[in-house]
Write a structure and sequence with these properties.
Elements lengths: L4 E7 L1 E2 L5 E6 L2 E5 L15 E3 L3 H4 L5 E5 L5 H4 L2 H7 L4 E3 L1 H13 L8 E3 L5 E4 L2 E8 L6 E8 L2 E5 L17 H10 L4 E5 L15 H11 L4 E5 L5 H13 L3 E5 L1 H12 L24 E5 L9 H6 L12 E5 L8 H13 L3 E3 L14 H11 L3 E5 L1 E2 H13 L14 E6 L2 E7 L6 E4 L2 E3 L3 H11 L2 E9 L4 E2 L4 E5 L4 H24 L6 H17 L4 E8 L1
Parallel strand pairs: 2-20, 4-6, 6-7, 7-8, 12-13, 13-19, 14-16, 14-17, 15-16, 17-18, 25-28
Antiparallel strand pairs: 1-3, 1-21, 3-4, 5-23, 9-10, 10-11, 11-12, 21-22, 23-24, 25-26, 25-27
Helix pairs in contact: 6-7, 14-15
Amino acid sequence: MTKSVRVTFLGGLGDIGRNCAAIECGDEVLLLDCGVLFPNEDMPGVDFVLPDLEYLRDRADRIVACVCTHGHEDHIGGLPYALQWLSFPIYATPFTLGLIHRRLGEHGLLDRTELRPIGDYDRISIGSFDFEFIPVTHSIPSGLISVIRTPQGVILHSSDFKLDLNPVDGRCTDLARIGAIACAEGVRLLLCDSTNSDMPGSTRSESTIGPVLREVFAAHPNKRLVVAAFASHIHRIQQVADVAVAAGRKVATLGLSMKRNFGLARELGLLQIPDSAVIDISQAEQYSSGEVCVVATGSQGEVRSTLAMAAIGDNRWIEVGPDDVVLLSSSPIPGNEARVAKMINALVDRGAEVVHNGQLEVHTSGHGKQDELRTLHTVVNPEYFVPVHGELRHLVAHAELAEQMGMPRSQVVRAKDGDQVELSDEGLVHRGQVTSGDYYYVNGQTVESGFDLFADRAILGTQGVVSVVVVVSYEDKRLLTKPRFESRGWVGNELTQKLADVGADEVEAAVEKLLASGQTNGLARTVRRAAGQFVNQNTARRPMIVPVVIQV
């Protein structure tokens, strides 16, 4: 009987982020990506959300490697945290390894791993897994489709992909090689990107952005162009640079991640810009507005990003004003719309003209839509299929698309974070949830799970806190001083003073009633209830009530 192969999804099936899967055969575990999820408004104070790495702790000595399909944070950002607990080599392309090296260096973890470069069409053995890497087009250079030959046949992982027939770097998704493998060996299991599975048609080529950029530059020959894009989107940056150089402008970067990625891509030959056209941002003021193009981070309006700080006049390198055109070469990530709108208003208030994707088509996705998914499914012709990389609606839409194409429902498995599927001689079996799938939150230097913390932060952030201090004689069972109200963020200071005295009287009456019965147990509960009722009745607000009972 041939060894079975298990795939456990530790993230990425239910969210667009924290992508991570553990592929197991015998005593070996191989990780496919290890990314983070960026927090939403329901996670105040969180830096990142990690995959469910607890599953790997019990298997630490069995992990043979992590293969990273490309360099986006939702695929590599979890590595510094995983390597605090674990140790394994990392395989990726040179550009992706460059990004990983920087992250691990910042955390002092380079001694916990070995970075092993791979390239297009490389075929290598990692433990009992035989990998072949096929080029794929995405919104970052050097993405890879993974063809994983296992004892149970070929597993093909699409990575994030689109079928761009005219990519900026000429590196197309190699459907011919995929088709050859499918015909010669067959593909038992397809794991495929679902991000745009609910969108009809095909995604526009990245190369269509260049002509739009030229229009914007040509329309504003005497103004400084500030173009905001993702720092990893080297193909977009290349097109911006091409247009800028053709217009006789110097190119400067704004933002640490933009500067670093810009330099890494030039070093590896992935970004072609003449040295004479590149200046440091500190030199930008030496040129007239029409002679400069600034490529910046902050297209999502992140609070401390360079562009957001410039929008409020708090950036040390540039002062945005009437001589600027700010081009947001991206679309707001769902949840960021209000933040981006606020930044645009601030930029306009400073006199700048803002151009965004709602006006001109200055952005296109790096993920394939339904027609591209159909093409890949047709070429791969898998025996079994599991949709990955997407929110629940994307996973469901992708499963339905496969079924509409004629794939039997029994051969399409809808999994979620924490689920495991097993490929054996009998076929693909959905084992259900084998690990919690919990979120693990990075809060500064701590990692923790559970939503209780955010419920408290939400109350503190929206309703404030009221602390009531009560000093009681344990021996005499009587109040030694009048209860004292203290608050932050509840109501204004003037009103707090007026309410505090009345509130103290009500808490005092409730405490004395309890003490008169000869009890001291339940003092904190009594204080919380009396203060909470008073606060709610008099202000219709529900701040956090913190009773402080001092017994002497």
